[in-house]
Design goal:
single chain, 52 residues, mainly alpha, DUF3209
Length: 52
Amino acid sequence: MKKDDPKMAYYRSLLILTKKIEFELKNSVFIFQNFFRDLEEIHDFVHEIFPA
């Protein structure tokens, strides 16, 4: 692709957006892992209070 291609700015914007989405997805995975871990702790705690 040539540097003077009229769509160059568009493609650069797509690359930036793609990288931003990649960071957001990594962050979401981290958040969901923590959420799942917290749910497991609450589950274990409930079993301590109400033994089966």
